[in-house]
From TrEMBL:
<keyword id="KW-0479">Metal-binding</keyword>
<dbReference type="InterPro" id="IPR002321">
    <property type="entry name" value="Cyt_c_II"/>
</dbReference>
<feature type="signal peptide">
    <location>
        <begin position="1"/>
        <end position="25"/>
    </location>
</feature>
<keyword id="KW-0408">Iron</keyword>
<dbReference type="InterPro" id="IPR010980">
    <property type="entry name" value="Cyt_c/b562"/>
</dbReference>
<feature type="binding site" description="covalent">
    <location>
        <position position="152"/>
    </location>
    <ligand>
        <name>heme c</name>
    </ligand>
</feature>
<feature type="binding site" description="axial binding residue">
    <location>
        <position position="153"/>
    </location>
    <ligand>
        <name>heme c</name>
    </ligand>
</feature>
<keyword id="KW-0732">Signal</keyword>
<dbReference type="GO" id="GO:0020037">
    <property type="term" value="F:heme binding"/>
</dbReference>
<dbReference type="GO" id="GO:0009055">
    <property type="term" value="F:electron transfer activity"/>
</dbReference>
<dbReference type="GO" id="GO:0022900">
    <property type="term" value="P:electron transport chain"/>
</dbReference>
<dbReference type="InterPro" id="IPR012127">
    <property type="entry name" value="Cyt_c_prime"/>
</dbReference>
<keyword id="KW-0249">Electron transport</keyword>
<keyword id="KW-0813">Transport</keyword>
<dbReference type="GO" id="GO:0042597">
    <property type="term" value="C:periplasmic space"/>
</dbReference>
<feature type="binding site" description="covalent">
    <location>
        <position position="149"/>
    </location>
    <ligand>
        <name>heme c</name>
    </ligand>
</feature>
<protein>
    <submittedName>
        <fullName>Cytochrome c</fullName>
    </submittedName>
</protein>
Amino acid sequence: MKYMLKSAVVAVSLLSSLAMGNAIAEEASSQKHAEAMVTYRQSLFQLLKSNMGPLGGMAKGALPYDTEVMKTNGMRLEQLAAMMSDYVQVDTRKFDVETEAKPVIWEKYSAFEDKIEGLKTASVNLQKVAGEGDESAYRAAIGKVGAACKACHDDFKE
């Protein structure tokens, strides 16, 4: 009975935290775990970068607008953003790992998740705008994706 009561208190506490928007990050369990998580999240960010590159080129006029690339890369960015929480939630601060992640990520994890939502929203918007075919709206839609990335970099990247 005592165990069930403790479990219920923990469950209610967890649900309350989630309902209030306080995401719970977990700590890496070992050096090996921390290193693996850093590798995974850096790989994820490299994929984000590879999908942003052509979009940035289009926004700057260095590349012609390509609606298929905008749709595809927008979809990929949305999917990568959806995975981001999974790979960043493991707090690696207690271990000696090379990372550009600021410690504030895990101190204000719900704020970090808000930035992820901003990237998802901007990526969905880019797909929509590309599908509508209004070339005059392309630059602004790409700009919103770039701004979402920059907002996160400003707050959470060394």
